[in-house]
Write a structure and sequence with these properties.
About 65% of the residues lie in helices and about 5% in strands. The protein is built from 16 helices and four strands. The structure holds zinc ion (ZN).
């Protein structure tokens, strides 16, 4: 949800597209997928472990049809908008117009990219509105429209403010190094991605939500979570545990890890802490601890950095081909010694190429994400072994709470799961948890020796 809004930073998102997949190692709403059937994957149980009462089941089926439609239409729509900007010569018209209204090149560039950010964000507004309406209709979102538009405006302001600066920088690199710009762009994108991950919990997340120390509001829960910390032998002191005031916006459950190094933390939504039994929060916390101790954020960053290298290289070549083939039709012309791809409109072609690549690579990025999520599920269940009476039961109960709160689809289509879900589906997570008992014959888990 938040990711899609921040993607008013769609521009920035297009560049740091995969970073999102890794940073968001959270138990997000519209997600799921079959268990990244790990080594220890058991047979499917007879009875599904995730079930909904009949009234909620009907709602979940209807809501997921809407979510799915919006998601697919949204991905394709983003590409169509970029193509339309080029094919109708709106982009080249905007470029010429900004050249008329400003004298300095950098001001022209800022204006061009700021308008581009506004256009792309506005183009996504109808779909965002539809998604929010559906979420509200089914009782998941409880945010006022004023609050929702407030968040939307903040995301737009970020896209215009930072997004346009960033695009201007990349555009300038294109001019400075017409042949190797993709390499320089990559060399800047990687540390930038790390920086954004580092500052996100301190500077970005508080723009949208309020946080306070979990210790302050839920001391008993913190004491329980400290038991998990002790068993995992991790270094997550109470001052790295935060409560997010999500209840003003949603009834959904969530917890997540974010940050890097000095800013690394675990965040539990206030719809989860206090509303869900502490045992289940311990499991969710165990899952998040898994992300924390297995260095999933860092692994995600590394995989993103390596992938981006090839993505940038391929996209530069593909965009170059598009400019040669369609440049005339799209109003892109060489000027003042600037190669066509390095013009502002040429840069939109580059964004178009990166967007196509990110669309095509979505299943791969999501498969990687689902693998990490499954690992965290296994870790979480092992982390609460010995701390709760029955880890299987606790894990299954928390998946049911999660699925019911978000009205998760109890039987999602497998192809859809592979393409769109960044977490295994609740159905498969619950099925796995119900059968996962490595201790039964005196054995031990994958991550703990007892
Ligand atoms: Zn997770």
């Amino acid at each position: 949800m938040r990711a899609s809004r921040l993607c008013g930073l769609a521009l920035l998102g297009a560049i740091v597209w995969m970073g999102a997949a890794c940073g968001a190692a959270e138990q997000n709403p519209p997600e799921g997928q079959p268990p990244a059937q790990a080594q220890s994957a058991p047979q499917q149980p007879q009875q599904p472990a995730y079930t909904l009462p009949p009234d909620k089941l009907a709602k979940a089926i209807a809501l997921n049809r809407i979510r799915l439609t919006l998601e697919i239409v949204g991905s394709v729509w983003g590409l169509i908008v970029l193509w339309l900007l080029l094919a109708t010569r709106a982009a080249s018209g905007l470029e010429r117009w900004t050249e008329r209204i400003a004298r300095r090149r950098w001001v022209q560039g800022l204006a061009f990219f700021a308008f581009l950010a506004v256009i792309l964000t506005l183009a996504g507004l109808p779909l965002d509105l539809a998604g929010e309406s559906a979420s509200r209709h089914y009782g998941i979102s409880v945010q006022s429209w004023a609050g929702w538009f407030g968040d939307w405006s903040k995301a737009l302001a970020l896209a215009v403010g930072f997004g346009s600066l960033l695009l201007l920088l990349f555009n300038w690199i294109g001019k400075a190094s017409p042949r190797r710009f993709w390499l320089w762009g990559w060399a800047i994108a990687v540390p930038l991605m790390v920086l954004v991950t580092f500052i996100a919990p301190v500077f970005l997340e508080p723009i949208f939500d309020k946080f306070e120390p979990l210790q302050k509001t839920n001391p008993a829960l913190v004491a329980d979570l400290e038991k998990v910390v002790a068993r995992t032998g991790t270094n997550i002191p109470p001052d790295r545990m935060f409560l997010m005031k999500a209840s003003v916006k949603t009834n959904g459950l969530n917890a997540y890890v974010s940050g890097l190094g000095a800013t690394r933390r675990v965040v539990v939504w206030d719809t989860t802490a206090g509303r869900v039994p502490d045992d289940e929060v311990m499991f969710i916390f165990g899952h998040e601890s898994g992300h924390y101790v297995l260095h999933h954020i860092v692994k995600g960053l590394v995989v993103s950095a390596v992938s981006l290298f090839f993505v940038f290289w391929a996209c530069a070549a593909f965009a170059g081909w598009m400019v040669r083939r369609f440049g005339g039709r799209w109003g892109i012309a060489e000027r003042e010694g600037v190669v066509p791809l390095a013009t502002r409109t040429g840069f939109v072609v580059l964004i178009f190429a990166v967007s196509i690549a990110s669309f095509l690579l979505q299943p791969a990025a999501n498969t990687f994400s689902r693998y990490l999520e499954h690992q965290a599920d296994v870790y979480g269940q092992e982390a609460i072994h010995g701390l709760v009476p029955d880890p299987q039961k606790t894990a299954v109960a928390s998946f049911n709470a999660l699925g019911e709160a978000w009205l998760e689809d109890p039987s999602p289509n497998r192809f859809i799961e592979i393409w769109l879900y960044d977490h295994p589906s609740v159905k498969n997570r619950a099925n796995f948890a119900a059968d996962y008992d490595p201790w039964k014959n005196g054995g031990h888990g994958e991550f703990f020796s007892h």
